[in-house]
Amino acid sequence: MNTGKTLFAQLMDYLPWSTFTRIVARYDGDHRIRTLSCAEQYRVMAFAQLTYRESLRDIEVCLSAQTAKLYHAGFREPVRRATLADANEARDWRIYAEFAHRLIAQARRLYASDSLGLDLASTVYALDSTTIDLCLSVFPWAHFRSTKAAVKMHTLLDLRGNIPSFIHVSDGKLHDVHALDMLLPEPGAIYVMDRGYVDFSRLHVLHQAGAFFVTRAKSNLDAHRVYSASTDRIGGVIADQTIALDGYYTSQDYPALLRRIRFKDPETGKTLVFLTNHVALPALTICALYKSRWQVELFFKWIKQHLRIKQFYGTSRTP
Questions:
Q1: Which of 160, 177, 170, 71 is nearest to 117 (CA)?
Q2: CA-to-CA distance for 275 and 259, rounded, in angstroms?
Q3: Do 225 and 241 form a contact (C-beta atoms < 8 A)?
Q4: How do strand 212-216 and strand 163-171 relate by DSSP bridges?
Q5: What is the pTM of this model?
Q6: Is residue 139 scored above 90 in pLDDT?
Q7: What are the b/e assignments for 161-199, b being 16+ CB within 10 Å?
Q8: What is the predicted pLDDT for the residue at 313?
Q9: Residue 158: closest CA among 120, 132, 107, 123
């Protein structure tokens, strides 16, 4: 007896398949493909993630146990392990990357009116990366250390809704600061990042694009004070200064003035020094913005707990 659509089929109905079809056509994804189209491959991998499948064989066995429901779930014929392995290795990854960005844009619109907890109209992004450890003998292309392999996921998180707007997966040796070269700065947006991203030539590119940044100052910062604003020390702000860089190279990389805020956390007693090019926001708001960066760490924690990224379904490197 037909009891209606499966839950998986209902979830897949929410996806914009007409958009996916156009993307596949753009990259000739289904050219000379007789079995397991790109759409079916996407459904298989989505099914594997949602049901926590362990391997390609596990996916095949689980789907073959439901042969009567495969057609209604979007599969024209049973899924074979070898066919799926060939598809994962040979299909153009840009199809799925572009479709993911379309879904992200759709999700961000749903959370556009969410509150940040701050009186801000600007878009606020948190930029960070996380390292995913891998086995060197299984993934020799994921260079990290002499006895260890890893990949690094660079993420730009929109703090309204905690939706990633940019994700780039690299080998584990790529330094975090290179992620700034991959971003298209959004005028008026605020980028919050830790001091691993302090590269004044790259930060000046953000500044020239009309974007703002909030980061931590390194202990060896060579600069002098130009002006000091009055502060309310009750809130924890020790100093709010306008500074100019003194280093020979840094002063050329970032010739404009910067704002330096020294803040003592009332709870921990720890003193933090922030750098920003935003001069209009109150000092405490700048401190609160940096604190909100913790949301990207929670996002990484969720990814590692809920998605199968510790054990991949294949071992080859995507072109």
A1: 160
A2: 6
A3: yes
A4: unpaired
A5: 0.82
A6: no
A7: eebbbbebbbbbebebeebbeebebbeebbbbbbebbbb
A8: 66
A9: 123
Question: What is the rounded CA–CA span in Å between residue 74 and residue 69?
Answer: 9
Strands (E), the chain: 124-134, 143-145, 148-158, 163-171, 190-193, 212-216, 223-229, 237-245, 258-264, 271-276
- Which value, to the nearest 10 degrees, does the dihedral of the CA atoms of residues 153, 154, 160, 165 take? -100
CA nearest neighbour of 86 among 46, 52, 28, 36: 36
Q: Are 187 and 212 a contacting pair, CB within 8 Å?
A: no
Distance, CA of 172 to CA of 150 (rounded, Å): 5
**Can you give the C-alpha Rg of the chain in angstroms?**
24
Per-residue pLDDT at 3 exceeds 70: no
Question: Phi and psi dihedrals of 188, rounded to 5?
Answer: 90, -15
Question: Any idea what DSSP says for residue 100?
Answer: H
Residues 6+ apart with CB under 8 A from 298: 162
- Which residue in 240, 237, 221, 245 sits closest to 229, CA to CA? 240
